[in-house]
Structures are given as structure tokens and as C-alpha cells.
Amino acid sequence: MRFDTVIRNGTVVTATDTSIADVGIVGDKISAIGAGLPVENAGRVIDAASHLVIPGGIDVHTHLDMPFGGTTSADDFETGTIAAAFGGTTTLIDFAIQYKGQTLRQAFDTWMLKAQSKAVTDYAFHCIITDLGSAQLEEMGQLVREGVTSFKLFMAYPGVFMLDDATIFKAMRQAAKHSGLICMHAENGGAIDVIVQQALAEGKRPAYAETCPQYLYLSLENMDAPGFEGAKYVFTPPLREKWHQEKLWQGLARDTLQVVSTDHCPFCFKEQKELGKDDFTKIPNGGPGIEHRLSLIYTGGVHGKRLSPNRFVEIVSTAPAKLFGLYPRKGTIAVGSDADLVIFDPNHEETISAKTHHMRVDYSMFEGIRTKGAPRTVLSRGRTVIDSGKFVGRPGSGQFLRRQTYSGV
Ligand code: URP
Ligand code: ZN
User: Fold this and answer.
1) For residue 396, what are the CA distances in angstroms to 77, 122, 353, 399?
2) Ligand 1 site, CB within 6 A
3) What's the CA gap between 78 and 86, in Å, rounded?
């Protein structure tokens, strides 16, 4: 058998298994996994000895090129996916926003145009619903059939994104009818204890939950930074007291939380965050995080002895893929899966800094934090996009992913 690429001698880590093996790639798919794959005729051989080979990370919560708060998030689909690739993330699910008066299709078309010629890795969309008349209700089913299988609803941002309870209820019922998934920004949810208790008694777990690296590493103390510096940490949901961090790590370890995404919503400190210098309500809320998700979770999780390497892979790649209808094409290392692969050095140490990161934003939320464990080489559908820490990809080569409906994690 002739392979286009063979990744040799790495420690292949999936959500369930760990083994020393070679991974053979033909075209954009993984075509063999095993010891001693033939390399004589291979187009490229990558030596991964003493490295982990993990499935490409999947970030299911990003806001690229998003108009918000009187400005636009600073990374577009080119700079955002490049930064994501540097950090080992090869698939992201961004949000197509339906503005009031628009159809859901207009939202989808607008975000496809933003992404198509720019993304260097694959992408999909959730649809943010802000206005749900009968026409849009019908469109929900159409979008599900076209691979936009999840819908984001907000219980925050009155006058912008917030929906009333009746609309939320209608959207939930329609999503259920079409096997779509609702992603809820649930900051002020009403008490539904009776229903929750009933569901739990029936052995049902009606909800899945995500967290983001900022909630694991930062706390309210960051907002006390001198001068206007605290604006760097204005995002929603807001930061909490420090003791929450360990509870969240425990949630990840015990599967109370299933997914780590980033909610990457970058605004530069100069000129963008500064819009709120004289009036805090004008600070565009959001923070940059797309690049360091894997490194931060590996550092605090695996080196911090809170997570096994397999659980690390599960929360950054496999569970997001399962939850959002991308598994087993994405989210694992298996014959027939896309060759989205990260060659990850578990001992590579770095200090996060805006001076060295690749996101198009002039500060880092994680400035000065030491990480141990970093992606070195990253493949997206068999194409190398990051080669020993250097970008070698091509804008426009990322593809839109038509997702399946949700089938549990
Ligand atoms: O602060 C954030 N997260 N801004 C982006 C919009 C949202 O709430 O997801
Ligand atoms: Zn968000």
C-alpha cells in the first residue's frame, strides 16, 4: 500500500485508547493504523517519536468576523483559523447570526461568504436565532437538513439577542422535531427544578455543558487590574471567584462538563475595548482564546493530574464531535476518519504572550501563563497546515462541514 503521509512511532491517543503506532494517510483520510507501516513509497514520513498523535481539536464556540458592540471581532476566518491551527484546533463551529427581520438562510449565506475564501481548516455553523416568525420556524428544519444542526438562543443581551420564553419554547420544540440541538446562553434561566428532578429520576440527563479555558485559569481578581486593564476580562458569562476554577476542573474530570470550547471573541484593547473607556457599558464583551485551548487544558489537566490524556482528547475533540454531529469523521483517529491530526509534544514549554501569539489581537488574556505541552505539526484532511511550528497552509482550503444531527456523547 502506498501512503501519501505516514506519521511514525508516535503515541496515538484517542478518547479511549493509547498505543504506539504509525498512522497512514491517503488523500484526506486516515487509511491505516498499526505498527511498522511501509514507508518506502510514502510521499512524506513524519517522525513522531516521543510525541503524542491526537485527533485535531474541535472548538465548538467561536465568534470570527462578528459585528458586535459597535465594532467587529478582530480575527476573521483566515487569521482565526490560522491561530486555531497553531494551537492544534482543526475544526471550529462558529455562529451565523440571524438579525431581526432576516431569514435564517440570510444568516447562513452571510457567514459562508465570510468563511469560504479564508478558512485554512474546516468549519461549521450554529445559527443564532434572534427573531422567530413562522417562516423562520420552518427554516429550522431546512437548515438541519443542510448541516446546520444546532441553534443558539440567548437569555441575555436584551434588545440584541435575548429571546422571550415563548420564543425559546417554540424554538426548542422545533429543534426537537428535527433532531436539532439547542445551545443555550443560560445566564438567567427560570427554575425548572421539578422537570429536572423528574428527568433525573428517569435516568435522563437532559443537558450537556461546556466551559472555556478562561473560567479555568482566570477569576474576578483579573478584573481588578489597574486602570482600564480590567476591560480585557469583560466577557460573558463573567468571571467568577477563584474557587470556581477547581470545581470546573472536577466537572471536566467527572463528566459533569463534557466540552471545552473557547468562546473566542477577540477585540483589540486599543480602539476596540477602549470604546468603553468612559462608559463601561460600551466595552465590547469577549476575549481571545482560540489558540491556546489545547495547551492550557493539557497543562492544567494532564500535567496538573486532573485528567488522563484520553480524557483530555475526549473533551477537546471527541465529545465536541459527537455532540455536534461530526463523529466519527472528526474527533478520533480511526480508519476512514478525516486525517485531522495533531503531533503534540507533551513536554514543550512556552510562556503565552501577545508578542508571540498568532491571533489578530493586541493582548492575551493568558499573558505570562506557562504551558507545558504544545502542538508542533498539524494536519487538516491530510494537508500539513502547521509544520514544526510554522504555518504552511492555504487560505480557502478549509471546507464547510454538513453536520449530522446530535446522537449523544
Ligand atoms: O463575551 C462574549 N462571550 N461575547 C460573545 C457573545 C457571547 O456571549 O457569546
Ligand atoms: Zn459566545
Assistant:
1) 9, 10, 28, 8
2) 63, 185, 235-236, 263, 265, 285-286
3) 12
The residues, ordered by sequence, that sit 6+ positions from 66 with a Cβ below 8 Å of its Cβ are: 72, 73, 95, 97, 265
Q: Amino acid identity of 236? A: T
Residue with CA nearest ligand 1 atom 4: 286
Report pLDDT digits (tens) over 110-138. Answer: 999 999 999 999 999 999 999 999 999 99
The confidence score (pLDDT) of residue 22 equals: 98
Instruction: Give yes or no for a contact between 344 and 54, defined as CB atoms under 8 angstroms apart.
Output: yes
Residues of the chain with pLDDT under 70: 188-196, 205
Quote the pLDDT of residue 250.
Answer: 98
What is the rounded CA–CA span in Å between residue 201 and residue 72? Answer: 45
Q: Which residues lie below 8 Å from residue 298, measured CB to CB, with a gap of 6+?
A: 312, 344, 346, 371, 372, 373
**Cα-to-chain-centroid distance, residue 19:** 26
> Which ligand 1 atom sits nearest the alpha carbon of residue 234?
1
3-state helix, strand, coil in the chain (%, to 5): 30, 25, 45
Element (H, E) at 131: none
Residue 308, Cβ density class (10 Å: 0-12 exposed, 13-18 middle, ≥19 buried): middle
Beta strands in 200-314 (DSSP E): 210-211, 259-260
